[in-house]
Design a protein that fits this description.
The chain folds into two domains: 3-64, Arc Repressor Mutant, subunit A (Orthogonal Bundle), CATH 1.10.10.10; 81-267, Rossmann fold. Helices cover 32% and strands 21% of the residues. It is built from eight helices and 17 strands. The chain has helices at residues 3-23, 28-35, 39-51, 81-93, 132-138, 160-165, 192-204, 242-250; strands spanning 25-27, 55-58, 61-64, 100-103, 123-126, 143-145, 149-150, 157-158, 173-178, 180-182, 186-188, 207-212, 217-218, 225-227, 233-236, 254-255, 264-267.
């Protein structure tokens, strides 16, 4: 190999090792697609990394040598409640009476439940079992629990069955959580599984509201990115940088005037898709 080729191979292998460390495990086909190389090349990279003790090969996938939870990682400490509450209040104002709201995975979406009590005729679909008692106690409308298998946290419902369960509900609003905004115009999510779920839910929902953990723009490229084309509203804890605002604007999301001290809100002001449209990702 020439020096340039060796350098490219090394960079690719370091990236693979870092992704698997972050995500706990990844499949060969996921890595092949993300890096635009053949599965044969990926298997060679995984063999090398396994020899270095950085991962373990297992049935078409690679697992971190020291396994982490499938929810991958926390890039930052959770937001303080004083920052989350303004975001949730803003999101709650976007949800109309007699709608069906899907409350997505993550720490923030479930915290909106107390703010939903004043919305008449609201139907709520939950993706987390630990949100059920609070919803039953505070909400007068119908409360449903999405089908699916239990995630690693023993409360989140996910997997193929959860995706199929989405078809049972005429979802008008979907409240989801993302880590931050990527420089290429996607929302960075915790895992590929989260991306698949949010993509399917985003296509079905009339309004998709994304709560961002951080306002800072990330230069990271990640397989688990969600296209901003599926999102009608982005709510950030603080105003974004000029570059992040440009990225949002390029996706058709423009700033909405908010009260002083409130969270930042960007929206497709004139875009309201038909709820429950049944479109496929």
């Amino acid at each position: 190999m020439t020096f340039g080729i060796r350098s490219a191979v090394l960079q690719r292998r370091l990236k693979i090792a870092d992704w698997i460390r972050q995500h706990g495990q990844m499949r060969v086909d996921e890595l092949s697609e993300a890096l635009s190389v053949s599965a044969v090349t990926i298997r060679g990279d995984l063999n090398y990394l396994e020899e270095q003790g950085l991962l373990v090969r297992s049935f078409g996938k690679a697992i971190a040598a020291r396994p982490t939870l499938p929810r991958d990682r926390q890039l930052s400490t959770p937001l303080a409640k004083s920052m989350v509450l303004p975001m949730l209040r803003l999101a709650a104002r976007l949800i109309e009476p007699d709608h069906t709201l899907l409350v997505g995975h993550g720490d923030m979406p479930g915290q909106i439940i107390p703010l939903l009590a004043e919305i008449p005729g609201l139907t709520v679909v939950l993706t987390s079992l630990d949100a059920v008692p609070l919803a039953r106690r505070l909400l007068d409308g119908r409360v449903h629990v999405l089908g699916g298998e239990l995630g690693a946290d023993a409360v989140s419902l996910e997997g193929t069955a959860a995706l199929r369960s989405l078809e049972l509900f005429p979802i008008t609003d979907f409240l989801m959580q993302a880590e931050t905004l990527g420089n290429d115009g996607g929302l960075l999510l915790a895992s590929r599984q989260a991306q698949r779920f949010c993509t399917a839910a985003g296509y079905r929902a009339g309004r998709c509201i994304a709560l961002l953990e951080r306002a800072a723009l990330s230069l990271e490229k990640r397989p688990s990115e969600l296209s901003l084309d599926l999102v009608t509203d982005v709510v950030l804890p603080t105003p974004p940088s000029a570059r992040a605002a440009e990225v949002l604007a390029a996706a058709g999301l423009t700033p909405v005037v908010a009260e002083p001290g409130s969270a930042a809100h960007f929206s497709h002001m004139n875009l309201r898709r038909t709820a429950g449209n049944g479109a496929s990702p």
